[in-house]
Design goal:
Length: about 110
């Protein structure tokens, strides 16, 4: 849970979405799971190197709200491992503005 604590702490400084990148890794004939890379920055510093990049692996049940605004985000991450779903361990939701919600298997800060 160290990553979750780090994300909670760092999103105070890097609270604005710079980019959302949804991608799929396909190897051979096997279709891989979708991954989502979220890049957060501090307003108004879009062009500096400081940012928070989070990759959520094995994304499912993705919903997007109106992301066409410049809003400070608050991302809540709950462990749902006890639900014993095969491919999901976390429920992720942007709580302030309902910008996105999804489930994922892994997450990492890059």
């Amino acid at each position: 849970m160290k990553e979750i604590d780090t994300i909670y702490e760092m999103q105070k400084k890097y609270g604005y979405i710079k980019s959302i990148n949804l991608f799929r890794e396909i190897s051979g004939e096997e279709c891989g799971k979708y991954n989502l890379e979220l890049s957060l920055v501090n307003f108004p510093c879009w062009d500096i190197e400081e940012h928070l990049n989070i990759i959520f692996e094995g994304v499912s049940n993705l919903t997007l709200g109106n992301i066409d605004n410049l809003l400070k985000v608050f991302i809540k991450i709950d462990s749902i491992a006890e639900w014993q779903h095969e491919d999901t361990r976390y429920a992720v939701k942007e709580c302030e503005n309902d910008l996105f919600a999804f489930r994922c298997k892994h997450l990492k800060i890059v």
